[in-house]
Specification:
- There is one protein chain.
- The chain is built from three helices and 14 strands.
- With 186 residues, the chain is mainly β.
- The longest helix is centred in the middle third of the chain and has 9 residues.
- 12% of the residues lie in helices and 38% in strands.
- Strand 9 and strand 10 form a beta hairpin.
- The chain is globular.
- Flavin mononucleotide binds next to strand 3, strand 5, helix 1 and helix 2.
- The site of flavin mononucleotide (FMN) has 21 residues, from strand 3, strand 5, helix 1 and helix 2.
Length: 186
């Protein structure tokens, strides 16, 4: 039996778990200090041209950095980076240098000025093509202009058994379903 949930409650809890990523951005105001924001709300938008979307609250420091730089990088993290992911999702670049204060290392990207996060297993380099405010968040759409990935994580483009991306379940809880659970190919 289903319960009717009041809309005033956290309706979006029912959208969890979410594969969660680290988005790196160039800080044009302080060029030596790029920033990182943890993002659970993100999605592919188009295959051709390749476009990726992220949803960012305008109160985040990263919000205006993305507008100013016109670029961002979506970094996919393994479960060993869960502490750093939480740090980047609970601290602001207004007060913290997140590359200094975590185990994450900036690495030169191929086609954008924002750095990749070296410890992550895959990276989408995006150039901003559009952004639009929906309610209390801005939906940024970037054209994916370069991609790099640790091939050890994949076999024919499919995540290998045992590799563990990070899922956010809400309420400060993370897990990784891992990929060594039941697997069915139809
Ligand atoms: C697991 C998790 C997921 C998050 N997802 C988003 C998101 O999709 N969009 C957003 O605007 N903020 C999200 N946040 C909040 C930001 O990551 C957080 O406010 C961060 O400190 C902002 O950093 P900044 O001020 O340096 O940009 C998330 C936080 C956590 C912990």
């Amino acid at each position: 039996m289903k319960t009717i949930i009041e809309l005033s409650k956290k309706w979006m809890y029912y959208t969890f778990p979410k594969l969660t990523v680290l988005v790196s951005v160039e800080d044009k105001n302080q060029s030596s200090k790029p920033n990182i924001i943890t993002i659970a709300w993100h999605s592919p938008v188009s295959l051709t041209p390749p476009e990726y979307g992220i949803s960012v609250d305008p109160r985040r420091y990263s919000h205006d950095l993305i507008v100013e730089a016109g670029e961002f990088v979506v970094n996919f993290a393994g479960f060993e980076l869960v502490d750093d992911m939480h740090f980047c999702g609970r601290r602001s670049g207004r007060k913290f240098d997140k590359f200094q204060d975590t185990n994450l290392t900036p690495e030169k990207a191929q086609k954008v000025n924002a750095p990749l996060i070296k410890e992550c297993y895959a990276h989408l380099e995006c150039k901003l093509v559009d952004h639009h405010v929906y309610g209390d968040h801005t939906w940024f759409v970037g054209e994916v202009v370069a991609v790099s990935a640790d091939e050890d994580w994949f076999e024919n483009g499919i995540l290998k058994n045992g590799k563990m991306p990070i899922y956010y379940l809400g309420n400060n809880i993370y897990n990784s379903y891992g990929t060594d659970g039941p697997r069915v190919k139809k």
